[in-house]
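This follows on from our talk about sequence and fold. I would like you to pick a protein and set down its sequence and fold. Go ahead and set the record down below:
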Amino acid sequence: MNKKYTKSPITHHLLALFVIFVVVAAWHMPALAAVTDEARGGYITSISFAVASQTEYWQGYYGAISYLDPKSPWYPLYFNTSAPEASSIRQIVLNISTFTPNEYILVTSSSYMNIVSLQAGNVSKVDAITGTGSDSGTNTFTDKSTFDKIPGRGVILNVPTVHLSGNFSEGLLNDSGNNNAFIVPIVNDTTGYEGILCNFQFILPTNRTNPVSYYMYYLSSQVTNQSVVGQITHSNNNTGITNVAVNLTAVTTMNLVGLATTNETGYYEFTNVNTGDYYVNATKIRYWDNSTAVSVTVNETQIATLQLWLVGDVDNNGKTAQPNDLTLMLRVVLWEHTGNWRYDLNRNGINGDVGDLVLMNRAALGEIILT
């Protein structure tokens, strides 16, 4: 794993690895089950950090997805941190016979995890464990990433992220109780620690004075037969619009569940959608946003087609801020014509006022572009 710092180039640390058992429960939320490990400073061995300072604030883990027979006398496996061999290099083994892309390991300091409440994390919560020096959370989670298709949660944007060796990465989240939660994508066999083929690698903050207990969950993707599809079209001629950003948002939580972009003919698709109520939102610069509600039922494909209007094209002829648009705006301002929301260019809630007329005139003169 490569954890980048700006301090002295000491490249070897202690790594504590353990065998862990995770039960995959079957219910309407993602399969979750947890076991604990008490992280202790100084137990990070054999992770090669390209440029790093010696630390006792981070504990590293790696492992592969492998199958453990539930009939085995060693089932379940566990890790006892007080055992004499606790500091030896051992491997996390998850009891999963197969896995698919978009599955994750979630490691949290909370014994209860509400997946729906997860949000992009605050690095200061990690700094409270590691301090604010070179080994801080601020100096570790230095990138921002999007974590997509999280089972039961969907998409989380702008997640503080650390990139480890190979294709391994780890994101920092917080739950509703402001607890740290570390999300780790499971990847296909990738060379990791000491050339070993792994499916995940991650690091956890700890403090020798105040050890932190962590709970580990496996988030299993749930393949469904539901989908939401549709086309985004021009309001004036119903032809498709390319490169429209389409978001799928859960009605009950307002969490972002999916992101899509329309193709060259304006079509988009969300697959593997859980049952429930959603908003489909379409946005593109220079167009008014539009949205609609859909209800996803079992084994059904819902079609949500939306039209977008050009900003400033009040006569809906496909051209913005033309002489006729300016004339119509003036008539609305003079109360000679009734306007609608497309006349509210300055977004102040008034459909056609002097401010809107000024903006339309400036756009007609080529001074501004209406967005």
